[in-house]
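Incident review: delayed structure delivery

Summary: a single-chain prediction request sat in the queue longer than the usual turnaround. Root cause was a stuck worker, restarted by the on-call engineer. No data loss occurred. The affected request and its eventual output are reproduced below so the record is complete for anyone auditing the incident later.

Affected input:
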Amino acid sequence: MRYILYGASKYMQERVDENRIQYVDYIVDKSEELVGQKYLGKEIKQPDVLLEEKKDDIFIVITAFRQLYSIEYDLKQMGFERGKHFEWIGRMYNHYPNHSVWWKCQKSEYWKKDEDAWRKEYQNEVPHERAQLVAKMIDWTGAESVLDLGSGSEPMRQLLPKEIAYYPVDYKQLTGNTLVFDFNQKQFPDIKADIVILIGVVGYVDYEVWLIDQAVRAIKSGGQLAISFHYSTGNYNAFDFITKYRNVIQCVDYAFRTESYGIFLFKKIDG
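Output delivered after worker restart:
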């Protein structure tokens, strides 16, 4: 298998180091300024050269973000199929074990670098706004327990009916009530709840599919799962992750806070 990168911007340079580049045949980019140059010894060519390739002999790793959708469109117009001939680097991990060199994006490392700054700026704004929206979407009738995965400072707690048991989970002690489980170490509490909340988390963990699988398993029969997907955090097409559960859960509501950030509410099917 020969690998070709599509996108030679700073985004690529942050994710493709001397180790990964050795598996690359060449790079393509639309920028006339970049074509003809080299990155770590690999030539940057025009995208049209892909038409000369035998499709089943290559795998194109998209290493761009802002032009992601237009690049996908162009590749499909050339006859390439997503998943078979190309994929965005942010989705390689968990989905393409045969291309293991591209697996890990290490989102958790990027998150931890910026975590303190993020919390200082948004501690009282974004989490509370998200929690209020989720609280309005959930049907609280008959609910007795809530498992809040990635609970942070627990903005959800004050929005719950008082009689509901609340289990806040995060990777470190953020309040006196936090149940500490590190999802990036594949740690998960042995708790089942009527309501499972996974908001503002999936885009920052390395094991997205594993985490969603655990969240679905934690829902009691007839219970609900509130989950968010944030494409600008590298959580591209993360909604695809949950489609395999269509016989277990059904989407009953959704809302978009911004063009790139969606919250979905699922209900676990009885039986």
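Verification: The chain has a mean pLDDT of 87.
Action items: add queue-age alerting; document worker restart procedure.
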